[in-house]
Design goal:
It is a single chain. The protein is of the alpha/beta class. The protein has one domain (3-85, 161-269): P-loop containing nucleotide triphosphate hydrolases (Rossmann fold, 3-Layer(aba) Sandwich), CATH 3.40.50. The chain has helices at 52-59, 77-82, 101-105, 107-111, 116-129, 145-158, 175-192, 203-209, 243-257, 260-269; strands at residues 10-21, 24-36, 41-45, 67-72, 86-89, 163-167, 195-200, 212-217, 222-228. It has a six-stranded mixed sheet with strand order 5-6-7-3-8-9, sandwiched between helices. Helix 7 (175-192) links the parallel strand 6 and strand 7 (195-200). The longest helix has 18 residues, at 175-192. The chain is globular. It binds adenosine-5'-diphosphate and magnesium ion (MG). Residues 19, 21, 26, 28, 46, 48-54, 221 line the site of adenosine-5'-diphosphate.
Length: 270
């Protein structure tokens, strides 16, 4: 086997997923191939139902693909889970309402059996990284949705994952909060060196947070285009005003919905 190209990032080779329920089957993903180099950031974008969460859940070992294989740092998802190589953050953070924020952030460490003094150190470090210092003793109900999502990210970071698998982590938030958290996440990614695979349906979020964007189309879900976002690590709020930003947004929009010029021409012909 050629191991040079297996890489130590994330990879999917010919991944397919057919959900079966009784006699009914849904082809959620077909022949998805994807490489996310170590330390880089990739988004999966596409309309609702195109299989974004399915692909992410395969990497997170929540479901097993019916075809192909997924690898994280050369490990199968099950091996990567055992080695705590990745952390998964979903749209709705699951904070236990009766636990203070520090105890919620430390949940993963507790499950992992990390001793209390070490746990407290890692909790404080992660809460500082996401800007939640001072809220250790607050209960989830006392915080805004944005702060709870930051806590969910902090919880993911306590285990020092190589990979962050995020499924629309800011999808339930208002646009201003989302924008703010996008740039906070950039800083966190740079500080931790984590490799990111992000599911989003926001075009601007994909541009801000990605080195490459995998554009997916539904039925059957597949990756139809890869778009490079050439901002490198030079990413601040100023990137929104960079002329390239609008160009990338347009490129993504066309990949998702069709190039307006081509669509108009087709209509004319028809
Ligand atoms: N557990 C499941 N059982 C059956 N069908 C499912 C299941 N999960 C998702 N699907 C179907 O698979 C397709 C892709 O779903 P999903 O990956 O959640 O898409 P997305 O995250 O892009 O909205 C959809 O048609 C959805 O209805
Ligand atoms: Mg989804």
């Amino acid at each position: 086997m050629n191991t040079a190209d297996v890489g130590y990032g994330l990879s999917a080779r010919g991944v397919g997923m057919i959900y079966r329920r009784g006699k009914q089957s849904t082809v959620a993903l077909t022949d998805c191939t994807l490489e996310v180099p170590r330390g880089s950031w990739t988004s999966l974008i596409g309309a609702s139902g195109c299989g974004k969460s399915t692909l992410l859940r395969i990497f997170a070992d929540i479901i097993k693909p019916t075809h192909g294989e997924a690898r994280l740092h050369g490990l199968t998802p099950a091996e990567a889970r055992a080695a705590r190589t990745y952390a998964f953050v979903s749209q709705q953070s699951t904070m236990l309402p009766w636990r203070k924020m520090a105890d919620n952030v430390g949940l993963g460490l507790e499950v992992a059996g990390v001793a209390k003094p070490e746990r407290e150190r890692l909790i404080a470090e992660a809460m500082e990284l996401v800007g939640l210092t001072g809220f250790e003793k607050a209960f989830p109900s006392e915080l805004s949705g944005g702060m709870r999502q930051r806590a969910a990210i902090a919880r993911a970071l306590t285990l020092k994952p190589r990979f962050l698998l995020m499924d629309e982590p800011f999808g339930a938030l208002d646009e201003l909060t989302r924008d703010k958290l996008n740039f906070e996440l950039l800083r966190i990614l740079e500080e931790t060196g984590a490799t990111l695979l992000l599911v989003t349906h926001s075009i601007s979020e994909a541009v801000i947070l990605s080195d490459q964007v995998a554009v997916m189309t539904p039925r059957p879900g597949r990756i139809t285009k890869m778009i490079e976002i050439g901002f490198g690590r030079d990413r601040t709020v100023a990137m929104r005003d960079d002329p390239r930003f609008a160009v990338y947004e347009a490129e993504l929009r066309h990949a998702l919905h069709g190039d307006p010029a081509v669509v108009a021409a087709q209509r004319h012909i028809a």
